[in-house]
Design goal:
The chain is an alpha/beta fold. It is built from 15 helices and twelve strands. The strands form two sheets. A six-stranded antiparallel beta sheet has the order 1-2-6-5-4-3. It has a six-stranded mixed beta sheet with strand order 8-9-7-10-11-12, sandwiched between helices.
C-alpha cells in the first residue's frame, strides 16, 4: 500500500471553532513526538502510560515548551502494523493552531490533503478509507449513515463492474455513469448547501429565517428595511446540513451602508446553491419585486415563495407568472409568522438539491478523486477493456 512517507499530522474534525478538536499523528515516531509535548498529571511518560493502560487512553496536558496549550485526552490505535496517536483537545481555532504548530516543530507536519486518505484511516481499500475520512467532517447523522454504507457497498459494486468489463462493457458504462450521477448530491450531503432568502423589504424574510432555524437570530420589525446586513446560521433540513442566509431587502432608495449590505447580499445570492425569492402575498406586486427579477438570471437556482398566506390574498400565482422566469416552476405558499406550510417548503428545497429520494443505501461516487478515475475508466472502456478493469480495481477501489 502506498502510504504517507514519514511522520504526519491530520485534523479529523471539521474546520472552524467547535467544542472538540481531534488531531491524528502517524508515522514511526508518532508516539515519541506526541510524548515530547505531553505531560501527565502523575509525571509518567506517555509511552509508559499507554503501555500500562488496557484502553490506551491517557489524560494530561499538551505543552508548547513550558507553556500549557490545553488539557487533552490522548489515545493510541494500532493499524497497518503501526500506531497512530489521536489528541482530543478543545476545538477553539487558536488552540488547534498551536497544537498543529507544536507537532510540526517536533517533526509531524500537517499532511497534504490529497494524501490524507492513503494511510491515516483504517480500511481494506481506498474507498473505505475515503469514507472514514469524510466521516470526520460529517455534520449530520444522515451523512454519517450514507458514508458508512458507501464504505461497504461501493467497493462491492465497483468490483462487480470490473468483472464485466470484458464481457459487457456497455453495462459497465451505464452503471458507472449512474454512480457518477449521484456525485453532486453526495457532495451536498457531505459539505452542505447554502440557502439564501431574498426579496423586497418587509416581505417577511427575517421572520421566515427565524422560523426555519427555530429561534430568533434576525431582528423582526413591521418597519421595512430593518435588516441592514446579512445574517447566516447553520440549520439541518431532512438530514442535509445547510447555511441559511437572511439578506437585506433590496430597494432603490437604499443609500450608504444599507446599499452596501444589499450589494453584498446580491453577491452572496449569486454563490448560493439555492435562492428563496420571497414575495408578500398580501400586497400588490411592487416595482422592487419586478426589479428583483431583472438580475436573477445569473443565480444558480431559484424557488419562489409567496409569504403571509395568513392574510387576505392580493398577489398570487396568476400575478406571479408575469414576473417569474418560465422555468422556475410553481411557487410555494407559506406563513413565516405562523409557520404554515413550512414542511412542504423544506421538502421542495430538498428536492431542488437532488436529495428528495436519496437513501442511505444509494450507491454513489463521493470524492473528486473517484470522479477523476471514473472518467478515465470510461475512456478506457472503448479502447482497452482489460486496462479499464485494472483501473477500476487498482485505481478506483484501491
Amino acid at each position: 500500500m502506498n502510504g504517507i512517507q514519514g511522520n504526519y499530522t491530520m485534523v479529523l474534525t471539521p474546520p472552524g471553532a467547535g467544542a472538540i478538536g481531534v488531531v491524528r499523528v502517524g508515522g514511526a515516531q508518532a508516539l515519541a513526538i506526541v510524548g515530547r509535548a505531553f505531560r501527565s498529571r502523575g509525571g509518567l511518560a506517555l509511552s509508559a502510560l499507554v503501555a500500562a493502560r488496557p484502553d490506551r487512553v491517557c489524560y494530561g496536558s499538551l505543552l508548547d515548551g513550558d507553556e500549557t496549550i490545553d488539557d487533552v485526552l490522548v489515545s493510541r490505535t494500532d493499524q497497518f502494523g503501526s500506531s497512530v496517536i489521536d489528541i482530543c483537545a478543545h476545538g477553539g481555532t487558536r488552540v488547534m493552531e498551536r497544537v498543529l504548530q507544536t507537532l510540526d516543530r517536533l517533526g509531524a507536519p500537517l499532511c497534504a490533503e490529497d494524501s490524507s486518505s492513503v494511510s491515516i484511516w483504517p480500511g481494506d481499500n481506498r474507498i473505505e478509507r475515503e469514507a472514514w475520512e469524510c466521516l470526520g467532517h460529517a455534520k449530520t447523522q444522515r451523512c454519517a449513515d450514507f458514508l458508512a454504507q458507501q464504505a461497504k457497498l461501493l467497493p462491492i459494486r465497483l468490483n462487480e463492474l470490473a468483472d464485466l468489463c470484458n464481457s459487457d462493457p456497455n453495462e459497465v458504462d451505464t452503471a458507472l455513469r449512474q454512480l457518477m450521477s449521484g456525485y453532486t448530491a453526495a457532495r451536498t450531503l457531505i459539505e452542505g448547501a447554502t440557502l439564501a432568502i431574498l426579496g423586497p423589504p418587509n416581505s417577511g424574510k427575517s421572520t421566515l429565517f427565524n422560523r426555519l432555524i427555530g429561534r430568533q437570530a434576525a431582528i423582526v420589525s413591521p418597519q421595512a428595511g430593518t435588516t441592514r446586513d446579512w445574517v447566516a446560521e447553520p440549520v439541518e433540513m431532512h438530514g442535509v446540513p445547510m447555511t441559511l442566509i437572511d439578506t437585506a431587502g433590496r430597494h432603490d432608495a437604499a443609500v450608504g451602508l444599507e446599499d452596501v449590505a444589499i450589494q453584498v447580499g446580491r453577491a452572496i445570492a449569486q454563490q448560493a446553491h439555492l435562492c428563496i425569492i420571497l414575495v408578500d402575498g398580501s400586497k400588490p406586486i411592487s416595482s422592487n419585486a419586478n426589479d428583483l427579477c431583472s438580475w436573477m438570471e445569473s443565480l444558480r437556482a431559484r424557488l419562489w415563495v409567496i409569504n403571509k398566506v395568513d392574510l387576505p390574498a392580493v398577489f398570487g400565482a396568476a400575478e406571479l407568472t408575469r414576473v417569474v422566469p418560465p422555468d422556475d416552476g410553481p411557487p410555494e405558499f407559506v406563513s413565516g409568522r405562523f409557520g404554515m406550510h413550512l414542511e412542504k417548503l423544506v421538502k421542495r428545497v430538498i428536492a431542488r438539491l437532488g436529495l428528495e429520494e436519496w437513501s442511505n443505501n444509494h450507491t454513489s461516487l463521493f470524492t473528486p478523486r473517484q470522479m477523476k478515475v471514473a472518467i478515465e475508466v470510461l475512456s478506457d472502456l472503448t479502447s482497452d477493456r482489460q486496462h479499464a478493469a485494472i483501473a477500476i480495481r487498482a485505481g478506483l477501489v484501491g
